[in-house]
Amino acid sequence: MLKITVRTLEGEEHKLEADKGVALMEPLRDAGLIDATCGGMASCGTCHVYLSDGWTEKCGERTEDEGYMLEGLEDFVEIKPNSRLCCQIQLNESHDGIDMDIAPEA
Questions:
Q1: Does residue 102 contact residue 25 with C-beta atoms inside 8 Å?
Q2: How many C-alpha atoms does 72 have within 13 Å on its Cβ side?
Q3: What is the pLDDT of residues 50-78, one digit of tens each?
């Protein structure tokens, strides 16, 4: 099991576990921390997170659809270089210990 640390907008820290091969969105959604309204299709932005230092590189480049969705959120929430839609990150061994903050919803 991979370890995940996530902080809510209220500053509450949650320690989660997930299997390799699932989208990062799944354990956050299952814990009730995000809505993930579109179910992982990068079309709603409700799984927007800010990855902590060092994790952006480990998660690879944004997908094209993810980039478009984040651009569409810019008028409503802050998009940072470490902004990601967690539905687009498939967990593997290199993500053990991943750390992030949930971004405000648009």
A1: no
A2: 13
A3: 999 999 999 999 999 999 999 999 999 99
Residue type, 80: K
**pTM for the full model?**
0.96
Cβ count near 47 (within 10 Å): 30
Q: CA-based angle 102:77:23, to the nearest 5? A: 40
Q: Residue 69 in 3-state DSSP? A: helix
Q: How many residues does the chain have?
A: 106
Architecture of the domain defined by 2-102? Roll (3.10)
**Six-digit token pair at 93?**
């061994």
Strand 2-7 and strand 98-102: the pairing is parallel
